Amino acid sequence: MADNACTDAVLGTSPQSTDTESESTDALRQRIRQLEEREVELAGRVGLLENVIERMGDGVVVADKDGKFIIYNPAAERIIGIGAKDIPIDEWQVRYGVYRPDKVTAFPPDEQPLARAVRGEEVDWAEMYVRNDVIRDGAFITLTARPLKDESGAPNGGVVVFHDSTNRKLAEAALAAERNLLRCIIDNIPDLIFVTDRDGRYIANNLAHLVSLGEADRNAAVGSVEADYVGHETAATHRAEELEIMDSGIAIMDREEPVTDAAGNRRWLLTTKAPLRNDDREIIGIVGISRDITEIKRAAEELEAARTIAEHATNAKSEFLANMSHEIRTPMNGIIGMTELALDTDLETEQREYLTMVKESASSLLSLLNDILDFSKIEAGRLEIDQIDFQLRDMIGDTMEALSLKALSKEIEIAYHVAPDVPEHVIGDPRRLRQVLVNLVGNAIKFTSFGEVVLDVGLEETIGDESTILFKITDTGIGIPVEHHARIFDAFSQVDSTTTRRFGGTGLGLSISSQLVRLMGGAIELSSQPGGGSTFAFSVKLRTGILVSEATSSKEAINLRGLPVLVVDDNATNRRILEEILGNWGMKPTVVSTGADALRAMSRATDLGEPFAVVLLDSMMPDVDGFMLVESIKQHPELTSATLMMLSSADRAGDAARCRQMGISSYLTKPIKQSTLFDAIVSSVMTSLLTQRSAPVEIPKTHTETVRPLNLLLAEDNAVNQRLAARILEKRGHTVTIANNGLEAVEAVRRERFDLIVMDVQMPEMDGLEATAAIRNLEKETKDHIPIVALTAHAMKGDRERCLDAGMDFYVSKPIQPQELIEVIDSLTSAARTDDDDEGEDGGNSEVFDSHAALDRVEGDQELLLELIELFFEQSPGLKAEIEEAVEKRDSKALQNAAHSLKGSTANFAATAAYEAALRLEMMGRGNDFTDADEAYTLLEREILTLTSALAAYRQDVLV
Ligand code: ADP
Question: What is the helix (H) or strand (E) element at residue 264, kind and residue range?
Fold first, then answer.
C-alpha cells in the first residue's frame, strides 16, 4: 500500500517552477530507481517464497477462486501420488481417490477442504485417506485449509497444507490394539487388580475388582475411593496401610485377609500391594493385587479335618492291631510251649510227627504275628529303639549260627566276616539289629538254592563315640528285577505272586527292616539282577560301649602269635574270612582249597621244620572231603602232630560222631563264631601241649627235683574253678587252703602263714585287688611278703598293671592253664621239693568217654573229672532254679550271674550246647533283654538235662 501511494506520488502532476521542475525530475528519477529496486527486491522475495514452497516437506496446494490450482508443490504430488493437473477442484477427490478416514466412504466434492476454503471456510486438522493407482497401499493425510482473500476481503481462492500421517495413524492403531489386548488380559485375570493415585482414587480397576466392588461402570469407578464402596472401617485400615507403603516405599506381599464382598459374602484374599512409581521413580500411587483364596482355604480346612479323622482312624486301627497281635501272641506262646512239653514226653512216631507239625505251624504263625505287631507299631509311631550295651561280634555270631539251620537242606555256604576295626562293645538295640539281619540273611537263604550267602560287616566311619557300621548281605540266588527294587521295601510287596506261592512270606520283612534301619539312623540299599544274586546293604549308627568281652580280652592275653595254621576249604569266601580272622590273632595262616594241596602244604611245612600247629578242615569238599583228608594225614605219621579241627554244616548230624571216632580234636559248626573258633583253637592247642607235657621227660619232671611242697592259699569264688586249681596244685604236692572271697582270704592270712597266694581278681564281698591291698597292709607289721599270683578272666589292657599296682607279684590269665600256673608258682618259690610226683601215671582213658576234651582239661585226671561231675550235679539244680526265678522276675543282674556260673561249670565238660544255652541267657541278662528269655530257658533246661544224663552215664561207666 505504501508502494502504491508512493507510485501515485511519483506519477501525479505538480504545479512547481522549471527549477522546481528539474528538481522534480531528479526526484522522479530517483523514485523510479527506488521503485525498480523495490521491484527487484519483491521479485526476489516471491522467488524465495516459491522456492520455500517448492522444497517444503508438507504438501501445499493453492487454488484460485475458480478452483484452478495455482500452486501444487512437489511434496503434495509425492504425498498424494498424482501431480497437479489443470482440473477443477470438484473433480479433485475423484481424480485423486480421496476418502474419509474410514477408507470406505468417498469424500463428497463440496465438502472437500480446498473447495470449502475457496468458499471462504477454514478447515482444521481434517483427516483423509488417499488411495489411487499410484498409492495402491493408501495413505492417511492430515490437512489444514484456509481461504485466500483479495484486498476487499472477498474470497478469491484457497490454500491447503497437508502431511502424510500414515505412520502416526498406524502407531496409534497398534497402541490402541495393545491397550485393548492388555485390558482384555487384565480383565480376564481372576485376581482383583487396582491402581490408585496418592489420594487413594482409583486410576484403573480390572473387571474382577469392579465386580468385587459391585461397580458395573468402569468409568464410574475411576476417581472414586474405596470408601465409596466398602465399609468405613475396612477402607480406613486399607488407606492407612497404603499410606505406610507410599511412605516407606516397601511393598507388602501375600498378606491373607478376610473381607466381606459387595454381595455380603465372607471371603479370604491374599493381597500384595506395591508403590506405583513414575518415570522419575517418584511414588505416585499404589498397585494392588488380591487373589481370592476362599476356595483354597476351605479345601485346606477340609483336608486338615479329613487328615485328623484319618489319623484317628489309623491310630485306632494300629492300636487295635497292636492289641490284637498281643492278645493272640499270648495264647500262641501257650500253644508252642505246651507242644514242646508234649514233644518231650514219650510219643508214638505218628504223634511226634503231628506235634512237630503243630509246633512248626505255630512258630510260623507267631513270626507272622510278630511281623504284624512290629508293622503296626511302626505305623503308629510307637516302635522305640533300645539303647543297651552289647557285644556286636557275639550277637552277629549267634544270629548267623541260628540262621545256618535254615540252610539245612541246601547246598549253600553260609559265612560272615566282621572287619577287625568294627568296635566290639556297642550301645544300641541288639534285638532289632538281629531282627533286620534275620530278615535279610533269612531272605538270602530262602531265595538261594546253591552258591553262598555272605554277611560282611565293616566300619564306615566313627565320629566321636558314634560309629556307623555297614552290613552287607550278598547271595548268589535268584536276584530281583530292577523295576521291583524300590517297591519291595513297601509293605506287603513281593516280586510276584508266583514267588509268593513258591517261597511263602508276607512281604512285610523288608518294609519292617528298612523302617528299623531308619530308626537306627541308617538306610538300606539293594543292588541285584535277576539270576545274578542280590546284595542288601544297610548301615546303622551305634555308640561305642564300655563292656569288656571275655573273649576279646582273653584273646589279647592268650598268645597265639606266630602259630602256623592251615585252612583247607573249597569255598573262597570262607578261606578269605578265616585267613583274616587267624591273621588278626597273630597266627600264621596258610590257605588251600583242596585236600591234595593241604597234604603238600603240610609236608612242605614239616620239611622246613615249621609244621602246622592247627589244621582247620572243611568237612564238605568236592573230590577229597575233610574226613578223607584226615585219613590221608593219618597215613603220614610225620604230619600227625597238628591239631585237626573239622568245620562242618549244621545238618551233618553224623559228622560229630565221625570226628570223635577219628580223634579229631574239635568239631565246629559253620558259620563259625570268632569267639567259638578262638576258644576251640586255644583249648585244642592247650590240650595238645598238656598231653605232650604230661610225658615223663617233660618240664614238670625236671622241676620236681627242686620243688618243695608249699602251703598255698587259693582265693576263688567259683567252686568248679576252685576244685580245678586246687587239684592241679595238690597234684604238685602242695597244700591248698581255699577262700571263697577276698574277705576270707584276708582272714586266712591273719590266721596262718602261707608260702604263696593264688588270688582271683573278681570275687564277691571283697575283690582280689582289695584283698591284696589289705594283706600287704597286714605285712607292714609282720615284715613279711607273701607272693600273690593274680588269676583273672578280665585280661584287659592295663589289667596287669592294676594287679601289680595293687601289690600282686604275678599275673595269670583265665582259663587256667595248669602248666603256666605251675611254672609261675615254681619260679616264685625257689626252695627244693622233696616229694615225688605221680605225674607219670596214666592220666585217663580218653577213648572210653566221648568227651575226651573234658578229660584233657583235667590233665586226664578221671577222679578229678568225676569230682567235677559230682559238683556239677550238686550245683546245677540250684543255678538252674536261680536262672528260672531271674527270668520269671525279669531280674537281669541275677540272670547274668547265675547263667555265668552255670556256663562256667559246663565249660569244663566241653558241653558246647549247654554252654551256648547258658551264654545266651547270660547275654540276655547283660543286655536286660528278656524277649526270648522263656524260650532260652526252656532250651537251657533241656540241654542241662541232656548233659546231666550224659555225665551220669559216663560216671556209671567209669565206676562199674
Ligand atoms: P517275604 O520274604 O516275607 O515275602 P520281604 O519283605 O522280606 O517279604 O521280601 C519281599 C520280597 O522281596 C520277597 O518276597 C522276594 O520277592 C524279594 N526278595 C527279598 N530278598 C530277596 C533276595 N535275597 N533274593 C531275591 N528276592 C528277594
Answer: none
